[in-house]
Structure formats: C-alpha cells, structure tokens
Amino acid sequence: MERRANSSDVAREAGVSRATVSYVLNGRSGQSISAATRDKVLAAARNLGYIPSAAARTLRSGRSTLVLMLLPPEPLGRAQAMVIDAASEYLEQHGLRLVAHRLPRSGGAVSLVHSLVPAALILITPLEDAELAALQATGIRVASLHSTLHDPLGPDLGIGALQVQYLADAGHRRIGVAVPEGAGYGWRVQVRLAAIEHACDVLGLPRPAVAHLHLDAADAAAAVARWLEGPEAVSAVCAFDDDHAFALLSGLAVHGWTAPRDLAVIGAEDIPLASLAVPPLTTVRLDAARLGKRFAQMALGETAAEELPPVSLVQRDSA
User: Where is the HTH lacI-type domain (predicted)?
Assistant: First the structure.
C-alpha cells in the first residue's frame, strides 16, 4: 500500500522547513513568508496529494470544533433541511460547526470520521455492524434518537402509525400507500412501509396496497385508477410525504375524482403549501426544528435518547 504523503515530504519537495509548510497550509498570519515560497509549498502539496491531518489539528487545539451528521443517500427534502438548520444553529451557539454528509450506500463512514475527527457524530442513516463497531471504538460520542443504532430514527418517528390510526378511526379498512420511486429513498421507504404494515396488523386491517410513484400527475393517475378500479379497491391512501400527497390529488383530478369523496389522502410533514392544496391537505406534522435541536443536544451530551420528538395530526379536508 502506498504511503500517504506527510508534511515532511512537502517540506523536502519545496525545499523549506516543516514550520514553513505548517504556516502556509494552515493559513497562519503574522509570518514573513514570500509569495514565491508560499506558491512552492502549495505546488508541492498538490503534486504529492498531501492532505493536512485533521487529527493533528485536533491534538494541537485540544478539541475538535466539528460535529458530523451522516444522512441517508436520498434527495434532501424540506424536513431534512430543517433538521440540519436547527442542529447547526444550536451547535453554533456552543462554538461548534455542523458538517452534514450524505453517506453513499457503499459506506465510508469510518474513513470520513478518521479524516475529520469530529467532536461528535449525529447518525440519521443505518450502518453495518462493522462500521458501527469501528465508530464506537473511536470513543467519539454518537447521537441517535433510538437505543439501537441500527435503527437511528426509531420506528418511523410514529408518522406511519398515526396515518393509519387516523384513517382506521374514520372507518377505512382497505388502505393504500404511495411511496417514492427510486433507489435513493430505499431505507426510508422500507422504514415507512414497515411502520404502516405493523399498524395495519395491530388494528386488524388487511396489508396495504403499495404504489411507487414519481412526482408526476400521469403516474399518480395510473396509481389511483388501480386502487379505485381494482378487485380490492382502497378507500384511503397514506402518502410518503406531502409532495406525494399533492401528486395523488393531481392524479385524482385527471379522472375527475376528488378527495376525500372518491379517495381519502393523508400526507406527512405539513409543508407550508399543505393548507393551500385543493382540498386542503390532512397530514402528519413533524416538528423538524425540534428534532434537529434534539440531535444537537445529544451530540453535546445534554439529552438522553429515549424520548422522540412527537408528531401530531393536522386535520384538514383531504381525509
């Protein structure tokens, strides 16, 4: 295995001292280093592929100022963005900076942590056993909302269960589920479907009829036609989020159908446009800002992991 270049290699390549390399690469001011010398050091570092050690910087300063948040490899939605913003704001008040990273399905968490040497790790994506063990061995605090890190957000935060309970209380027996099409959503879709299926089992309802949708009116129209005109017609649908609920409302309109007369629709997240849907969208509200703050508090060691931020029903007209 080829040895990784270090600051001594850069100093030798540039013909300067290690102290000069440190001054240049760490951007320190107050040193009389000529532009020519600075350019030589930077060129040597580029040629050698040298990356300054985050571990060394942490050892010199006594602590890291970074908190690393690992996200699943899916498109970033409004709720996730609010979680990141709230966590970042809270950490900044305590002199820390948040780095959010979408982790590829191929992994890479351990090498990223070794590179950044964060003060704490916020986990919003599942990891393999070997990765979890390696991360825990570093001694870095791992913040998660669930006692088992294999399931860092717990049972879907209660979103799917609340959707099913509301529809069952309204008299619906045969329920559909609309989830995103695409591999990028894989983990969250699995978690949501498992939660909805479990809720149906607990309430004695048939297993839900699942449709994978693009955010497209024609795609949604085909799905609602299958649900309403199939041999086992459904009367209500749990949408993965409010965006997919909007798609379902558009799909109903293509056929001249409406919610909830022909098909009840319940969303999730309660985006600002939910109240402007036609009809206004019944949905499950997730307090994403509180969730982000909770993650930050746990990263600082302030809050235990047992209590999940609550979700709540927002009852409007679509279901």
Answer: 5-61
Question: CA 124 to CA 191: how far, in whole Å?
Answer: 13
Give the integer Cα–Cα distance in Å for 162 and 208. 15
Classified by CATH at the fold level, domain 156-286 comes out as Rossmann fold (3.40.50)
- DSSP assigned state of 289: H
The CATH number assigned to the domain with range 62-154+287-308 reads: 3.40.50.2300
Q: Are 213 and 220 in contact (CB under 8 A)?
A: yes
CATH of the domain spanning 7-52: 1.10.260.40
- Structural domain boundaries in the chain: 7-52, 62-154+287-308, 156-286
Q: What are phi and psi of 141, to 5 degrees?
A: -65, 130
d(CA 146, CA 157): 10
Q: Would you say the CATH fold of 62-154+287-308 matches that of 7-52?
A: no
Which amino acid makes up residue 120? A
- The 3-state DSSP class for residue 185 equals helix
Q: Which residues contact 282 (CB under 8 A, 6 or more apart)?
A: 166, 264, 265, 266, 267, 313, 314, 315, 316, 317, 318, 319
Using the CB atoms, write b or e for 93-107: b if 16+ within 10 Å: eeebebebebbeeee
